[in-house]
Amino acid sequence: MAELSLQHLDKIYDNNVQAVFDFNMDVKDGELIVLVGPSGCGKSTTLRMVAGLEDISRGRLLLDGRDITQTPAKDRDMAMVFQNYALYGHMTIYENMAFSLTLRREDKNVIHKKVLAAAEILDLTSQLNKKPAQLSGGQRQRVAMGRSIVRNPKVFLFDEPLSNLDAKLRGATRREILLLHKRLGATMLYVTHDQTEALTLADRIVCMSMGHVQQVGTPLELYDTPNNIFVASFIGLPPMNFFDVTFEDGQLKGKGFTVELTDEQRDTLATYNRQEITLGVRPEDIVAGGSLPVLVSTNENLGMNTLVHGHMGTQQENKISAKLRGWANYKNGDTVAVQFTKMHFFDKKTTQAIRKEAK
Ligand code: ADP
Predict the structure, then answer these.
(1) Where are the domains of the chain?
(2) Separation between Cα atoms, residue 223 and residue 36, nearest integer Å
(3) Cβ distance 156 to 186 under 8 Å?
(4) Is the pTM of this model over 0.85?
(5) Which ligand 1 atom sits closest to the C-alpha of 159?
(6) 121-131 pLDDT, tens digit each
(7) What is the pLDDT of residues 98-110, one digit of tens each?
(8) Per the CATH hierarchy, to which homologous superfamily does domain 4-233 belong?
(9) Which numbered atom of ligand 1 lies nearest the CA of 191?
(10) For residue 223, how far is its CA from the centre of ligand 1 (angstroms)?
(11) Mutational test site, ligand 1, from 13, 18, 82, max ligand atoms within 8 Å of CB
């Protein structure tokens, strides 16, 4: 069992920089939580507070109901996997994985069992007699994880573990972490700036900006119902398109285009009559055929889809990217008529999502 409770955590560094504001979350046993956000948003600081590598300025941290706010890192029963996994070059893979247990003078037979079990989980059994230099980057990353697994910690903490792997290896290692999580059933906190990693790995995502949590939810919740413009633009690739529009006469009027709405959408916007709002549309929620004109500037074939960049209407400021189904060969200057199959509405001033009020 390993349940974590992060209660109103603040981090103020010595130079008075507040890196984290009121971080509040309960992590369930066996959950894989991904903290995601741009560089400098406070995700590593949060992870390091959990690990005990940074003091917690305010708030409390509980592990299985026990207050560990002041507990030294080495007594927290957590293992951190860093992006810079330093393995001992002169030792075999077996010795690298056994190292921390050897230091603790555990029984040789116990160590042997634990190393073999970890190697089995990580598919490293046939590599145990090799030296790190004989392994690929991905295998070395797995050895680094193996060193954590043998300690059987309650919580695994990952700080951007894939960021120094090349794109292909990143995808493969990501899938291995997912398998590892399934096999171990362990509670994991994982930090990344990569929204793809967040969407593909997480049971729940915590999306952060400038030290503040913007939204906590499943990948689908953050993708489908983002709380605000920040989350909407950070999650999803290519990013969501945004337009300034006015809600008037039951329609959305932009510069050079008008969007028709359903009764339900009009209902959602009822309190915004004659006001300017921000309309958000994901590139993949745009389909060819409709009444909205897109003036094409570039056409990128991706195989299954075509990414069309251009402008709505003829206005230069209405930039749009559309991921249209199938292969297309639009030329610069062509106009393609599209429609939006799903729309997101945001309050222009607060940037918060406009949702239908519960009745
Ligand atoms: P992230 O992991 O999201 O990139 P960090 O948690 O590393 O962000 O940093 C959050 C903020 O705290 C940044 O503004 C960073 O400059 C600041 N910061 C990080 N570490 C320190 C430190 N040791 N002393 C002072 N400020 C720091």
Answers:
(1) 4-233, 241-347
(2) 13
(3) yes
(4) yes
(5) 2
(6) 888 999 999 99
(7) 998 999 899 999 9
(8) P-loop containing nucleotide triphosphate hydrolases (3.40.50.300)
(9) 2
(10) 27
(11) 13
